[in-house]
Amino acid sequence: MKPSDNHPQQKFTRDLQYYKFCAYGFLKNLRFYEPFLMLFFLEKGLSYAQIGTLYAAREIMINLAEIPSGVLADTLGRRLTMAISFVAYILAFVTFFLSTQYWTLVVAMVAYAFGDAFRTGTHKAMIFDYLTSRNWQHLKAHYYGHTRSWSQRGAALSALIAAALVFRHGSYAPVFLFTIIPYTLDLILIMSYPKNLDGPRHSSTRTIRDEFAHVIASFRKSMTNPGTLRAVASQALYSGYYKACKDYLQPLLRSLALGLPLFLALAGEERTALITGVVYSGLYLITSMASRRAGALGDRFGNDLARPLNAMLLGGVGFGVLSGLAQVASLPAIAVVLYIGIYATENLRKPLGISYVTERMDKDSLASALSLESQAETVVSAGVAILLGLLATFFGPGGGLMITSALCGLAGILLRLPPERTEFTERESRPL
Q1: Does this model's pTM top 0.85?
Q2: Rounded CA Rg of the chain
Q3: Largest alpha-carbon pair distance within the chain?
Q4: Residue 262: which region, alpha, beta or left (left: phi > 0; alpha: psi -120 to 50)?
Q5: What is the pLDDT of residues 121-146, one digit of tens each?
Q6: C-alpha angle with apex 168: 165 to 172, nearest 5 degrees?
Q7: DSSP string of 316-374?
Q8: What residue spans define the domains of the chain?
Q9: Of 248, 250, 244, 95, nearest to 166 (Cα)?
Q10: What tens digit of pLDDT does each residue of 205-236 get?
Q11: What do you get for the CA distance between the two ends of the chain, in Å?
Q12: What's the CATH architecture for 16-429?
């Protein structure tokens, strides 16, 4: 039952669609390859610079497809767009498994990029439209944090299963094939979503051509607001930094595994699989708790989410600087602990940031606008990935992380979000 507009609920109901949203995130994060993706590339003989170009190629292709995918979702329907996403993912996993050369890995990354571009902003828009239909829009950070926490639980389980797969097969490649199973289930789940989550197209009487024009006009209206652009830039900076840096934890864990006096009877790859699986599983349990508590943290600051968002951005890149310093000082255990701070910050900050951004967007082009936010992340991530890859090649992973994190911290200071004040909001709300 939809609550009264005069007396909005302070808690959301965990109905069937809530569990579908949670199941989607859980299955989506059963990415058995994720804890070993960089190690997979290193196993193929790639340098850090080449790996950086692979990540950049993925992010550039996401960037090119992100806005069209959002417009397509708002125009033709979000469930169909999500189905296209999962088909692209599955094609990417098959290509990764079969790849033997650098260029085939580029093809796999491009297919993966299309999957990401057609998924990210689209599913968030479905969640926020659902909240609006139930008059729960004031609970965005709480609801999104809960569903995101299930994504992190899926990642925690995924890390343990992935470790067992690598241990059993003695190779990183098979994990891509096993990832096809949960992604096929997620494709089926998405198609079971109710039609009213398809977005504006579901209830619109316009032709597809007119719907497209309406979405573009709504999108332009959102993007001519300076406050919206600044919010998107701040959110994209840290999430893009996180996406570019997160996999550099893997070679660090390999160094830690080979240096510990544990499991000495096992081969180096098997020891790496065990240590990586355990650490990643614990890490994702921590990030799950962080996402789940994001809403409560936001409540402590009321309407002024700018304060925690600014602080967490600088704190997250600060963890990166210190972790890089620990790596340079040959303290891998301390570096790993500090690296976990980068992950935890992203999962605490993301629900608050998305809530902050969506409050400044036009509802009729929500998928398109959220796709712009994801696109901005890919621009940052591509640039950081290339920079970090080059710096890691010349100064080692620790030195590269330390310098890159410091530069992102400086950018964070420049993009600092203003406090929530009436006079500022009125000034910023005027279109350019």
Answers
A1: no
A2: 21
A3: 68
A4: beta
A5: 678 778 888 888 888 877 777 787 78
A6: 50
A7: HHHHHHHHHHHHHTT-HHHHHHHHHHHHHHHHHHHHHHHHHHHTTS-GGGHHHHHHHHH
A8: 16-429
A9: 250
A10: 555 555 555 555 555 655 566 667 788 888 88
A11: 41
A12: Up-down Bundle (1.20)
